[in-house]
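JOB MANIFEST
job_type = single_chain_structure
chain_count = 1
residues = 287
[input]
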Amino acid sequence: MSYLLALASAVLYGAGDFTGGLAARRAGTLPVVVVSQLSGLVLVVLLLPFLPAAEPSRADLLWGAVAGLTGGVGVALLYRALAIGRMAVVAPTTAVCAVVVPVLASYAMGERIGAVPALGIALGIGAIVLVSQQSAEPHGEVRSDADGPLPRGVGIALISGVAIGFFFLSLAQTRPEAGMWPIVASRTVSVLLFSLGAVASRQSIRMPGTLALTVLCGIVDMSANALYLLAVQAGPLSVMVTLSSLYPASTVLLARVLLGEQLNTRQVTGVVCALAAIVLIVSGGPH
């Protein structure tokens, strides 16, 4: 059951990233993050009375708060990367980093990585290099979608992936008895963080024409978080994180079908390698 929950969370994470990135292209990153995070918080608070009784400890809530800080930053950076870059490149880049962080943390805590996960990490690094390859024009000129040495959004995606990796790791430290309260703590922290950011920057969060899309993004993302939390509380961390991190598949599919995004051969190879790396990283890991 935990495997199905993790896979379902991956589908929803990918759909949430797509809608969030699309909304950020139209309305800007900060307004989308504030409204989507707030809508997700409202959803989970409204559902709490209908969920089984939970007994969160202080540690559960603190880990939830850490998840809110790291996840909020990660999501904000991800939406920014998706808004300015190619979704089919940004999403797998973020996902590889998000998986590597928990694996390395497990290693630091005494777990030893086998040959297969190590191969996965190496493949993931290679995938990042491949998806970063820019297309050349017939006369040898690099296309104008670059941002420095990397295509637009890839550098931000790398940082986003690290932050999201810590988000996954933080939520995994909570107990099943805590129920959805770690998610409530997480989302409360992220809403406060970005609301303060909006006030400090005097940026309006009004978004005519994109409000419904942004609210949908928040609901889908919150649903994915809830499914991931249930999965990681019931199954092994490495497996659940990896299955949840397969979300680029749905993001890439939606970007291809709805936006018509095209990739060059090396980038297609990189996307495939990124998804394969996610599987390899955990397939030989501790269960």
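[summary]
Confidence is low (pLDDT under 50) at residues 137-144.
The two ends are 15 Å apart (CA to CA).
exit_status = 0
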